[in-house]
Structure formats: C-alpha cells, structure tokens
Amino acid sequence: MSMLKGIAASNGIAIAKAYRLVEPDLSFEKREVTDVEVEIKRLQDALLVSKQELEAIRDQARVDLGADKAAIFEAHLLIVDDPEMISPIKDKIKAEKVNPEQALKEVTDMFISMFEQMDNEYMRERAADLRDVRKRILSHLLGVKIVNPSTIAEEAIVVAEDLTPSDTAQLNRKYVKAFTTNIGGRTSHSAIMARSLEIPAVVGTKTATDEIQDGDLVIVDGLKGEVHINPTQEAIEQYKKEQIRFEEQKAEWAKLVNEKTVTADGQHVELAANIGTPDDLVGVMNNGGEGVGLFRTEFLYMGRDELPSEEEQFESYKAVLKGMNGKPVVVRTLDIGGDKELPYLHLPKEMNPFLGFRAIRLCLEEQEIFRTQLRALLRASSFGHLKIMFPMIATLNEFRTAKGILNEEKQKLINEGVQVSDNIEIGIMVEIPSTAVMADQFAKEVDFFSIGTNDLIQYTMAADRMNQRVSYLYQPYNPAILRLVKMVIDTAHKEGKWAGMCGEMAGDEMAIPLLLGLGLDEFSMSAPSILRARSQILRLSKKEMEDLAKKALQMSTTSEVLEAIKTTIK
Fold first, then answer.
1. Which of 272, 322, 418, 466 is a plausible cystine mate for 293, CB 3.0–4.6 Å?
2. Residue 538 near residue 265 (C-beta atoms within 8 A)
3. Out of 76, 228, 385, 502, which one is annotated catalytic?
4. What is the mean pLDDT of residues 50-57?
5. Active-site residue 363, yes or no?
6. Which domains does the chain have, with CATH numbers?
7. Could you tell me if 301 and 344 are in contact, meaning their C-beta atoms sit under 8 angstroms apart?
8. Kind of pairing, strands 385-390 and 425-430?
9. Which stretches of 312-455 are assigned E, i.e. beta strand?
10. 76, 140, 189, 228: which one is catalytic?
11. 189 within 8 A of 165, measured Cβ to Cβ
C-alpha cells in the first residue's frame, strides 16, 4: 500500500479499480517486409477491429450523447471503409514492401495535408477526423490500448496527467466514481466539472500516472486530498465507514433543500449554482439552488466538430430558463481561450493564452459567432428570468460595444415579431484587476457584477493557477484580493446594483464567513456545495462577520487572515 498527497478538489470518498487515461506510445520504425500478404492481413485485421469499435462507440454515443455527437463516429466509420484511402495503403505495402504502419502514415499524411489546404471549412475539419482514425488503426497494428473516457463501462477511478473539459464532460457518472490527476488545482476545469458531477477528485498529485497501474485498487479521499494505492483490507474497511459518515452528513444537509439562506441574525443572501449544460439542472434543484449564478455556455460548443446552431443554443437556454421556474439564470457569453479550446475554430497557438485572444475579445472580433449566441439568448429570454454576463471585460469600451451588439440583435428580433423580455439585466464578470480598480465607473453602466475569483486571483498575484510551482501564490485570502473584492461590492451597492461571485472562492468554507462580512449578495458555486454552504451560513452572524472582514482587510498576510477566520468561527 502506498499513498499520494494532492489537492482535495471535490468532496467525497471512492473505492474502485484504476483506469489510466494516458495517451499511448504509438511510435514505430519504418522497416522492409518480406511477406506482403501477412502484412496486408495485419492491416485488414486492424481495420476490422477499428470498425467494430467505432460502431460500438457510435451506438453508445447515440444513447448517452444524442445523434449529433454520434455523427462524429459515423464520419470515422466512412474513413475506415473508404477504398480511396485503404487501396493506396495496400498498394504501397505491395510496391514498396514497407510495413503497414509506415504505409498508413504516408498515405494519411498526404490526405491530411490535402484537406488542410482546402478553402472549404468542412473539408479542413476532416483532417482532424482522419488523425483520430489513423491513431485508432495504428494502435491495433501496434497492439497498444487506446483510451477513451466515454467507453468506460464498469466502476473505475480515472487516473490521468490532466483532464480536458471535453474529457471530463464525457465521463459517465454511473461508472466513473472519482478521478485523480498529476496536475491541476481546485480551480482547474477538471476540478470544477468533478464538483458538478458530484464525484470525488484529488488533483495535483504530481506522480499518479507513474505510480498507479491499470486495475490497481485505489481509494480517492476528496476530503483530505489523499490517494491510496492497493490499500490494506483494514484501510478499505475504515474508508467504507468514512463513506457512510459522509453520506449521513449529506443527508443532514439535504433537510435544508427548501430553506432560505438566512444568517443567524436574519440577513438573506442568495446561493446559486454554476452549471455547464441543461442536464446540470437536476443537481441545482436537488441541492436547493436559489438560481443559476453562472451558466458556462462554452460547454455547448465543446466535444463537437462544428459551432452549435442558433436553434440548438436557443433550445438549451430555453430548457434552463424554464427548468428554473422563474428563478434567476445568469448566462455567461462564450468564454473560449486559456485552457478551453475549440479545435474547429483553428485559432493560432499563443505563448500565454490566459492573457490572450479569448472570451469577449474573441467574440468582438468573431461577431457572427457572438451575434448567433445573443440571438439565441434573446429568443429564450421570454421563458424565464434571464441575466446576461460578458466575461473578461477589461475596458468600458468593450462593455459598451458588447452591449451595443446585444441591443442591435434585440431590435432586429423585435422587428421580426419575436418576443423578447424587457427585464434582462446586463452585467460583467470582474476578473481583471483593472476592472476591479475601475469598478466605480463600470457600476454606473452595468446592472450587476459577478466576481470571477479564479482568474482575478491569478492575474492579481501574477501566478498561473495551473502551474504547480507557483501554486503557493494562489491565495484567495490574501488581503490584496479581499480589498479588490470589497471595492467591487461597495461600488456596486453605492449605485444600487448587486454583486455576486461565481469563482470557486464563493463555495469555499473558509472564505464564506469573510465574503458574508464583505457584503456579497450572491454566492454561486457547484451545486453539491450549496447545502453545505447554507448549513454554514445559517450559523453565522452577519454583524460578527462584518467585524471579521474589517480586521482581515487591515492584515498583512494570508496566514494572518486564515488564523482570524479559524478563531472567529471555531
């Protein structure tokens, strides 16, 4: 038995066998072959197995993800059966007496290059399909297992270097009981998705993929940030008891599902949920969410090979608005960039993508994408209580331009006879320090602020939140961060506006007392965190938390602030 220490990214305890989600080594040497027929037979076998796999994945995707996602695998099946690709590979093996791995690479390289140079975007995207299919065929030629998170069909704990948002979105909660990664932190998108899926996660272990093998029995302790590999029977029994205790605690919190979030001295605050898709609404309602404080619309654009249509988006936004039964829904417009990529947009690689061409910057340049989303949102607005939020706003001009485009699309729809709500609030995410400093000016023009602490902290501290070596600088309780948060809240209130927080800090047990004292109106967090947060706030006096916040703002270090919190709420 051995143990890895990491960052507790999502609460809970899971015990299951490991499934390593690690890219296989598909390297090979070019070689001359003597028996051409044997090599062609190897190729045909690899093609047959690939076809059978793709058919199974397609059929499962239809059930789990819908026909649109399954269509990706239909395209892959067409490639495997395409004689215009397969025949040249066989001809090359025969004529040049090269191994099928080499023939496959040379022929597909030619097609990929040809597709990528075409003017037609659809044909350019076929290059990515061809790469995927080549990887699958090559894996069977080399006898190497290829991994796919969507095909996990038994209880497992996923072990990976990291998980992309699209990887995490494919995890089937029925089978994936937890995951652990080498890198990442509480604010990485894999961690955020884990909390939405309500599965335990420990990230930032550094060596999980080195020390855990496929099939190893693993315990993921998302409460303490520990991963136990091949534990003793005694440890397994102890953790089973811990699982029961945690479930009992959750049952106590569940009794608060229909309660208002009111402090011990009678002050109400709103507890809302962060979601990624309409499917997440079940978790919001089951956990007593008083609204949606952040709908991350980028997940509608991910895990596919083309932009979602206006109609697709409209149906998603409508489903969320109707599903919340009149409770507020804050929708963030497309926030792509940083660690969230859309391969089909073919955006250039950047040296520092977190500070680059992303979010509102991309939308203001790629206005057709932006306008399509805004039209879908405006059309859906009559089905519920919609609030629209622009991300990554750095200047007033950006906000004014974005709002101007929104108003143009609104007027077009009204002219077309489409019903649009008259009560849509327009706000911004405050995640750039300059915006926080200028909050008094923004507050005159926006309807609300939502503080995005995940980015605000990394930008203020000049520390990449995905970089393990500077993770010590990711300090939510640093007085510098608290002063910025206080500045934003106070200027909003001065103009009669509300201020919320949709960063992970909003659901942090240590941060909640401070945020309450700083005057935050709305706390938006992963749905499973809501009932625990409500239980905590019910026991806190806002007056006492205001005194705590005043002291914290005058402190010098994070450790001093943490000590003050612990002393106050013990």
1. 272
2. no
3. 502
4. 85
5. no
6. 2-22+152-243 (3.50.30.10), 36-142 (1.10.274.10), 255-569 (3.20.20.60)
7. no
8. parallel
9. 328-332, 385-390, 425-430, 448-451
10. 189
11. yes
